[in-house]
Design goal:
With 114 residues, this protein is an all-beta fold. It contains no helices and 11 strands. 0% of the residues lie in helices and 55% in strands. The termini are far apart.
Length: 114
């Protein structure tokens, strides 16, 4: 059993910053990629950023230059630093951990007011 728990969401004004954290725990040999996805009301879930165990990153075009994903392998934790937030970043943000199987967190709400 693997648990994935996110934290750090909240309400922020446009232009502000938030930092999300996600920790995976349970029975697994190693975590391959960890990533952040988001889902806005009425829209499909989309990739925000992903990082491999070796540190290779990939970002959605809409967040490049504003968001930074990082990872602490020793803590099985991934972070998402979000700067210059825009109202269109408002969504529920989900963490995903790939341990051979894919596990999702419960999501954390990020709301950006204009």
């Amino acid at each position: 059993q693997v648990q994935v728990v996110e934290s750090g969401g909240g309400l922020v004004q446009a232009g502000g910053s938030l930092r999300l954290s996600c920790t995976a725990s349970g029975r697994f040999f190693r975590i391959n990629a960890m990533g952040w996805y988001r889902q806005a009301p009425g829209k499909q879930r989309e990739l925000v950023a992903v990082i491999t165990s070796g540190g290779t990153t990939n970002y959605a075009n809409s967040v490049k230059g504003r968001f930074t994903i990082s990872r602490d392998n020793a803590k099985n934790t991934v972070y998402l630093q979000m700067n210059s937030l825009k109202p269109e970043d408002t969504a529920v943000y989900y963490c995903n951990a790939d341990v051979g199987l894919s596990y999702w967190g419960q999501g954390t709400q990020v709301t950006v007011s204009s």
